[in-house]
Amino acid sequence: MNITRRDFLKLAGATGLALSFGRVEAATNEKILVVYFSRTGEEYGTGNISKGNTEIVAEIIAQRTGGDLFEIKPAQAYPNSYEDCKKVASREKATKARPEFVGDIDVAPYTMIFCGYPIWYGDAPQIVYTFLERHDFGGKKIVPFCTHGGSGLSSTDQTISMTCPTAKVLRGFEMRGSVAQNNRSQAESTVVENLRRLGLM
Description:
By secondary structure, the protein is an alpha/beta fold. It has helices spanning about 5-15, 55-65, 80-95, 125-135, 155-165, 175-180, 185-195; strands spanning about 20, 30-35, 40-45, 45-50, 70, 75, 100, 110-120, 140-150, 170, 175. It has a single domain, classed as Rossmann fold (3-Layer(aba) Sandwich). About 35% of the residues lie in helices and about 20% in strands. Strand 8, helix 4 (about 125-135) and strand 9 form a beta-alpha-beta unit.
């Protein structure tokens, strides 16, 4: 039976496994992990999407750096409806909820962690903080990246710095969700530009 790369990615995400991509263009001794939360379903201005915007960016980073991928997969799926998801996201932010996720990964072997998420109500989804608060990032470098509809990083890099005070949070980068979803060449270019800035290519 032939298993496509896409099928393998789905299997790993469903089981909470980290995926390891062979080093492609990386020019670094960093041991890299790309952690991300991403959502599929109804998207404002885009329609229904089968692959989340942040997942697309995360995969490009992993492919370009040879890093491992770990998806923060919610134990209870967010609603497919955009409006219903907004209600849940708003409630979680207001109550500082810490939603559970499926599976986990040992971050100890990694020296640099890319942390990706969409911007929900001017912040990272609360499930991202569930993951960050659960691990020890002492002495590690964290690079935030996000997808958004116009807000940029929205000070989430500062919030991550406060959440992970023993880590060195580097300047992150952002990408409009519509670019990630509909313009692969521009998405690739943005990622490569930032990886070069970070000295990873």
